[in-house]
Amino acid sequence: MRWTIKPKPEADKLASLKEALQVDDITATLLLQRGIETFDEAKAFFRPDLNQLHNPYLMKDMDKAVARIEQAFANNENILVYGDYDVDGTTSVALMSLYLKTRSDLVATYIPDRYDEGYGVSFKGIDFASDNDFTLIVALDCGIKAIDKVAYAKEKGIDFIICDHHRPGDTIPEAIAVLDPKRNDCEYPYKELCGCGVGFKLIQALSEREGKTIKDLVGYLDLVATAIGADIVPITGENRILAFYGLRVINGFPRPGIKALLNQVNKKNELTITDVVFTVAPRINAAGRMKHGNYAVTLLAEEDEDLATKYAEEINAYNEDRRETDRRITEEALEQIKENKEEDRITSVVYHESWHKGVIGIVASRLTETYYRPTLVFTKSGDKLAASARSVVGFDVYNALEACSEHIEQFGGHKYAAGLTLKKENYEAFKQAFEDEVTKTIDRSLLVPEIRIDSQINLNDITPKFYRILKQFAPFGPSNMTPVFMTKNLMDTGWGKRVGADQTHLRVTVKQSDSNPMVGIGFGLGDKMDIISSQAPFDAVYSVDENEWQGNVSLQLKLRDIK
């Protein structure tokens, strides 16, 4: 494990921010590391305000999208809301359909079958629209590369509005409107919206035409916050505002579908973005992975609590199936790497025709926990092979795939996660080309997991007031991760021990010179017990957390590593 301490801020900026905010060095440092340099920026960060959201009409083609939807309302046209089968896609479809149904009864939804149609806009979906007299498709979290599909729809008299956030190709589809802040010709100020976020900007623009304000749309933000968490987008700018208020809705008055999911996991405490990522999102995803994304949309859009409970129970069962399936396939993939003697490669590329397509992305993530390197997991999909790609921090797997595109039929995605299809006969050539490309371009240090440390502090710095300030940095996520600290020269007070059923965790009580003792818990750090029992000083990397035991609340160190 690499420990990397973030650079210290410039002294004059640190002094200026401390003076402006009347805060200590540590707080000012954390803010500057997150790009917060002035009083006004700090105010916006600590007090997110819905009125800080950008004008939706700054997004290219927004006026065209609104005009076409208003035309559809006026002409009583059938509108099909089309989206991907993952969390971002299904929340987007639920969001858009719920809003459009407040304006029209002629609205339906469509999620492509993960196995029959695959990712994104499909010819089958367009045929469905044509056969059922839909004249407008609003596509969410997909469509930016659907040039041939949009052209096909046009031939059938169907217009397209695309709301996407993925990287465009060289050509933009000839849709009525293409809303994507990542378009080179789009000057929208914030580029990191997820698909559901782009959809929200569209309903924001539509609602303004009705004379409504942003506060009238707050009830939709539980869906947006769920998508933000699940899609691992930066928690900055508009995403921070949307996540902040979305979490308020989730913790206050969530829609019946989300409430029913939370009841499945008996979550009592206030939910964070991390809880959304690890409890709500996997269950929504399980529908598309193990059954069909329609089940997720039905749950998320349901307004009857009894029905929502029934749907949530079904989806929870799919999630249990998913967990068992991805555990088994992960074991098989790890065994394949060993059998092929590929433990020392720069990449992991594995394939089996029977692996469940719905979990290969999870398996790819699991493999990076064992072999920390760019990873692809392939399975059979029709007459081709489909893969999910996952990368390591600092390496752009999308660019690596682009360099191997001669072997690929289709690919898309982001810097750290992507999907692709190729012909079976091209698998071995691609596997070698990908290994060669990554070997040529990756910095070898990126193949060692890194802990990025915000600041070195002393135990005496950790006070209830300090923790109250830390909590105000939430919601946490990419570009605003939970602050990580390092403290040197800690000593165990004699209470250090392995804990957990399999003794893989570590519990310590530590001091630093004259400090008060503090409890630390290190999940998966049981093998570090030798360092503790040596009674020599050691250094620790950790975040600060609250521990509640028998009604008593105390601060504790959530250990990441020690040495």
Automatic annotation (TrEMBL):
Segments forming domain RecJ OB: 453-561
Domain DHHA1: residue ranges: 350-439
Transcription regulation listed as a keyword: no
Keyword Nuclease: yes
Gene3D superfamilies per the UniProt record, alphabetical: 3.10.310.30, 3.90.1640.30
A GO BP entry: DNA recombination
Pfam families named among the record's database cross-references: DHH, DHHA1, RecJ_OB
Domain DDH: 78-228
Coiled coil segments of this chain: 301-328
Source domain of life: Bacteria
InterPro entries, per database record: DDH_dom (IPR001667), DHH_sf (IPR038763), DHHA1_dom (IPR003156), RecJ (IPR004610), RecJ_OB (IPR041122), SSDNA_exonuclease_RecJ (IPR051673)
Keywords of this entry: Coiled coil, Exonuclease, Hydrolase, Nuclease
An example molecular function term from Gene Ontology annotations: nucleic acid binding
Family as reported in the entry's similarity comment: Belongs to the RecJ family.
NCBIfam families, per database record: recJ
Protein's recorded name: Single-stranded-DNA-specific exonuclease RecJ
Species of the source: Aestuariibaculum marinum
